[in-house]
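1st attempt posting a full record on here, be nice pls
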Amino acid sequence: MHYKKTTKKNLIAILGFALFVAAFFTTNQKLTPDMAHVSSIMVVVFALPTYYAIIKFKGLAQGLILLLVLGIYALSIETSALTTGFPYGDFNYTGVLGAKIFDITPWTVAFAYPPILILANWYARTKTKKYLGVIVYTAVFATLIDMVLDPAAVRLGFWSWIDPGFYYGVPLVNFLGWLLTGAVGALLIQTMWGNKKMPNSLAYSGIGILWFWTAINIWLGHILPSVIGVLLCVAIFYQLSLKNSRL
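the predicted structure (as tokens):
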């Protein structure tokens, strides 16, 4: 048992280092719509560990339903923002994230957002068992993760706002929107998942995504997003290290 746990920790360390190196090459590569297929594959690959864990834990039918609902939810809120400005403000995708559904929203959004929301909900459940508390924790934690993702994504040219904001080009309305959509997303998960404990494996995709974008911010010299990302990662791995928690 000790050998298996040590091996798993070593694997995590190796993957973490690999993502750190990958982030370096990402920041030094000019991203264009011609590379959309690479970005699309990476988004799906990042999502696979959590998607596999959900299907393994919930079963094929219930797992796919949960993922379908979260995917549709992600596409719906993103399409709303792109067409009306609500809830994230007026912004545009550059085409780096792949083909757009109805020429509006990249299809990869259905794979990019759910792992982040699930990570936030998993972490929230480790902090409180109260229904409202989980909703609030999820919304806040998801927003903190976006404070790591958005500055780097804007700098690399994944998307841009019509009226750039104070936080590395990201407007305040975006984070208010994340609080709202994070809360609604938490309600969806709470309704479909119930009060059952979430296995740690559900958080793996979100952890990988968070660390990758934290590393990108480090390479870009974004101090505040880097600090937030590192602190979030420390908090997550501390939770995973607890005796009643299994990697």
